[in-house]
Amino acid sequence: MHIELPFGKGTVPLDVPDGNLLEIALPKEYIQPRQPEQMIQEALQNPLGTDRLSTMVGPGETVAIVIDDYTRPCPTKTILPPVLEELKLAGVNDLDILIIIAAGTHCPPSADVIKDLVGDKIFRNYMIISNDAVNGDHVKIGRTKRGNDLEVLREYVEADFKILLGDIEYHYFAGFGGTRKSILPGISSKNTIQRNHSLLFEKHSSMGQLKENPINQEMNEAMHLAGCDFALNVVQNSHHRIVGAWAGNPELVMDAGVKLVDSMYKKEISEAAEIVITAANGHPHDINLYQAMKAMYTACQVVKPQGVIILVAQCPQGHGSQLYIDWLKKYKTSQEIQKALQDNFVIGAHKAFYHRITIENHPVILVSEMESPEVTELFGFIKEKTPKAALAKAFSISGDHARVLVVPQGTTTFLTIKKSEMR
């Protein structure tokens, strides 16, 4: 079977012998039903649980709009302009609008990256800032039921009207991205984010889980305390084409998006595989190893004990986090990392935990542009140049008759195994 795997902005070929192929875990792909601009307009004209945006705000009011950063595939250039047009209809002055990039703990983007996110016209005509989790002006808005002090960017908190823009997809410990995640971690302080993410060791902090997920619960608390008057979120297919758009009350928007994501990307596998080949969705999900790790985590859920994982991710920016590297160097086992994180959670170091626990239990073969010495000596991966070479290596480890599962959209596919087959 011939398969093209996402790799950066292109693809790389893979051929799996038919006798070995267990399944290609593809999403239930929906095609774009209408032009994206039409879908956005329909969502804005028919909001869920609120009045139309242009009637909710007026002249003289300040507006804060939160958008996703460069590590997310959100089509901001498509969804932001119609929102700005709605605000013009409402009589809001452009000078009273502040666009905030939800960078979380990521490095604040450069001017060129911001221009690429929003387009040249918006870049030139609106005030745009980015969250700086360490140096930003964050104010305490309250405390969660678990005792986490919630500190959110002052510029957002003090705005008269608050709007969240984003896309809804799976997240490997927050359950799903979208709406409330624009606040926490998007525009929160480092301390607030670290306290929230420290809950990832708890039972329900996992992909596709929301109701009992403690991380999601805190994110919702943060959104309600910080405020959100209007949300616009979309769902995309694997080709980054919008297949659903909803506006209005953030909770209703989230519910609608989650249902569509589940219908597309929740996939039940008949049995665990000896070899799982997972691609990290291509750009921007495979921009660095820190982001691409999510696809490797997905593979861990459906590979047999000691089975081989092949991770296909371009990683043009290398590892993506010095902290992640420092923890891999400092701690040699996942148990050591977990203990250190439970004593003092540090954002970014959790990726080192996932990394260590994966390579302790599985041989991992990486197909990437990263340099070989770093891949093998620091990360403990086996480095191969192509998926073909990686699969040949995997067969040499697992045997010629090993069953192979291929997951082209490993970052966003939610894989489960039929209960009767689960190990």
Description:
There is one protein chain. This protein has 423 residues and is α/β, with parallel strands linked by helices. It folds into 2 domains: 2-27 and 265-421, Alpha-Beta Complex (2-enoyl-CoA Hydratase, Chain A, domain 1), CATH 3.90.226.30; 36-236, Rossmann fold, CATH 3.40.50. Helices cover 35% and strands 25% of the residues. A 6-stranded parallel β-sheet has the order 3-19-15-16-17-18. The chain has a 6-stranded mixed β-sheet with strand order 6-5-4-9-12-13, with helices on both faces. The protein has a two-stranded antiparallel ribbon with strand order 1-2. β4, α3 (76-89) and β5 form a beta-alpha-beta unit. α1 (36-45) runs parallel beside α3 (76-89), α10 crosses α13 (349-361) and α11 packs across α13 (349-361).
Notable characteristics:
single chain, 6-stranded mixed beta sheet, 15 helices, 2-enoyl-CoA Hydratase, Chain A, domain 1, 2 domains, Rossmann fold, 6-stranded parallel beta sheet, alpha/beta, 423 residues, 35% helix
- CATH T-level topology of the largest domain: Rossmann fold
Number of helices: 15
Number of strands: 20
CATH superfamily of the largest domain: LarA, N-terminal domain
Roughly what is the average pLDDT, rounded to an integer?
Answer: 94
Q: Pairing-aware structural class of the strands and helices?
A: alpha/beta
Give the CA-CA distance, first to last residue.
Answer: 27 Å
Largest sheet: 6 strands, parallel
* Helix fraction by DSSP (H/I, runs of at least 4): 25-40%
* β-sheet strand percentage: 15-25%
Rg, Å, rounded: 21 Å
**What is the CATH C-level name of the largest domain?**
Alpha Beta
Sheet with most strands: strand arrangement = 3-19-15-16-17-18
The 3D shape can be described as globular
